Amino acid sequence: MKNTPLVVSLLLLICAGAIFAKYAAPKVQIYSRAPGLFGKPNMLLCHASMFYPPELNITLLQDGGAMEGAHQTELAFEESWFYHLTEYASFTPQKEHKYSCQVSHQGETKTYHWGETKPGLKQD
Ligand SMILES: *[C@@H]1O[C@H](CO)[C@@H](O)[C@H](O)[C@H]1NC(C)=O
Q: Would you indicate the residue range of the signal peptide (predicted)?
């Protein structure tokens, strides 16, 4: 059959699509560029990775409201075909505020809090 290579290629493409189309929940990390010190200018970053499909929303929050001046990196993918994305904003951590990152993917929204697992977070 003349078209065999074409048929095989198509079948491979379909199989590959089925593998890559698998849902994968994002791994999320929220961290500051420099060690978190109250009153010291810093940058808050929220990194989501290993997710699929590539539709995902990240929002950085201060006390539950969207942080001003937040930027997002381009959606990028790794060799593994999973996507990653980072949202970041300059901030000066204040003791009286709570910082978090809200990530929505596939209709599921989760909130990750900054500082809770950071023993380096010191008070002035
Ligand atoms: C991301 O936000 C937009 C605008 O609010 C919304 O239409 C879309 O459904 C959201 N996507 C996900 C994956 O939550």
A: 1-21
